[in-house]
Specification:
With 165 residues, this protein is an all-alpha fold. The chain contains 6 helices and no strands. The chain has one domain. 74% of the residues lie in helices and 0% in strands.
């Protein structure tokens, strides 16, 4: 099926839509955590770094959310956002752990260390699967329903943007 230039300019491709989802979810969770933590930062220079990061993430999210009008959207249940946030944060941690172990293994020259890292990578993969399955079962990560997935992203980003700090 051929798409006209106008269709291509007004509709995101599936692969870029999924990348957009990953960026918005990751930055929304990060923004919420940073806004929550800034009050505990005592060092003025570090506090300025936190403030700049908040401003940058807010600007990023606002720019990225503008592209959601080019994707399908629907309703989201606001009551589920807190559990979804914590589960999403855990999923991001689990995903990053898998990536970090995989990278570390490629840098390992010592067989004993490689064996330990490989064992721990397998545990990280299983943990990721458990967290993902929890999120999927509870409707926090509707990975087979793009409309719901993107709607959840918008709600999470709006919540992160509206948080005071």
């Amino acid at each position: 099926m051929q798409h006209s230039d106008e269709q291509r300019q007004n509709t995101l491709a599936w692969h870029e839509t999924l990348e957009l989802h990953e960026l918005v979810a990751f930055q929304s969770i990060g923004l919420m955590k940073i806004k929550d933590a800034i009050g505990k930062v005592q060092d003025s220079q570090l506090k300025k770094l936190y403030e700049q990061t908040i401003q940058d993430l807010e600007a990023n999210l606002k720019e990225l959310l503008a592209f959601y009008s080019m994707t399908p959207r629907g309703e989201v249940d606001e009551r589920r956002l807190d559990n979804a946030f914590y589960a999403g944060d855990l999923l991001a941690f689990a995903k990053t752990a898998v990536r970090n172990y995989a990278i570390a293994i490629t840098e390992t020259a010592t067989p004993q260390l490689r064996n330990v890292l490989t064992k721990q990578l397998q545990k990280a993969i299983l943990n990721h699967a458990k967290v993902y399955n929890y999120m999927y079962k509870n409707g926090y990560y509707p990975s087979y329903d793009l409309e719901k997935l993107l709607t959840n992203d918008v709600a999470l980003a709006k919540k992160a943007l509206s948080m005071p700090y």
